[in-house]
UniProtKB/TrEMBL annotation:
Residues spanning the membrane: none
Protein's name according to its UniProt entry: Lysine biosynthesis protein LysW
Entries under NCBIfam families matching the protein: lysW (TIGR01206)
PANTHER family xrefs: LYSINE BIOSYNTHESIS PROTEIN-RELATED, LYSINE BIOSYNTHESIS PROTEIN-RELATED-RELATED
UniProt xrefs under Pfam families: Zn_ribbon_LysW
InterPro entries: LysW
Organism: Paractinoplanes ferrugineus
Domain of life: Bacteria
SUPFAM superfamilies: YfgJ-like (SSF161187)
């Protein structure tokens, strides 16, 4: 599967075992990307993990 990094447009070759919601890193710009679609392959910038401050 080939998908484009939404940050730098690099084409990433994702393994066939890639799953929805999996987070991958772009080797060029180092952005963390979330897989939001398999057919067609689509990546978005992964949301920042929010701290819960013990709540």
């Amino acid at each position: 599967m080939i998908a484009a990094c939404p940050e730098c447009e690099r084409k990433l070759d994702l393994p066939d075992s890639t799953r929805l919601s999996e987070v991958v890193e772009c080797p060029d710009c180092r952005s963390e990307l979330e897989v939001v679609s398999i057919e067609p392959p689509l990546l978005v910038i992964a949301p920042e993990a929010e701290e819960d401050w013990g709540e």
